[in-house]
Amino acid sequence: MNQRQANLDWMLKDLAESVPQTRNVVVLSADGLRMGQHGGDTDAADRLAAACSGLQSLAGAVSAELPQAGRMKLVVIEMEGGFFYLMAAGAGAYLAVLADEGVDAGLMGQRMRDLIIRLGEHITSPPRSDGQAR
């Protein structure tokens, strides 16, 4: 694990510990690659990152139907047993969180926004060309 990854994982842990009922926190690139995680195992984080890539693409297609289409900012899904949050986090990067149903939704949104501001360019993912970051 490189220094950037270690710093990112530490900040994700801070988010999880500051919001009770948080299960998994993942930072991913727009093409579904895990850039950092806290909670759960690596395979689960990779599956979540891949699923999020499809979800952010779907959200973008839906936003095209609005008069002033723009980039997806936040997707929240409530399921039996919990919540899923996906928030835009810099150019080509997203922050995803899985939480139990008792989570404070307002606090989660606030902490996710705070984390994105703190991380700044650390979670920006450059576009990929032929499978390689530019």
From TrEMBL:
Keyword terms, alphabetized: Membrane, Transmembrane, Transmembrane helix
Protein's name according to its UniProt entry: Roadblock/LC7 domain-containing protein
Organism lineage string: Bacteria, Bacillati, Actinomycetota, Actinomycetes, Kitasatosporales
Domain Roadblock/LAMTOR2: 9-99
Pfam families the UniProt entry points to: Robl_LC7
Sequence intervals crossing the membrane: 82-103
Organism, as annotated: Streptomyces sirii
PANTHER family noted in UniProt: SERINE PROTEASE INHIBITOR RV3364C
UniProt KW Transmembrane keyword: yes
InterPro entries: Mycobact_SerProt_Inhib_Rv3364c, Roadblock/LAMTOR2_dom
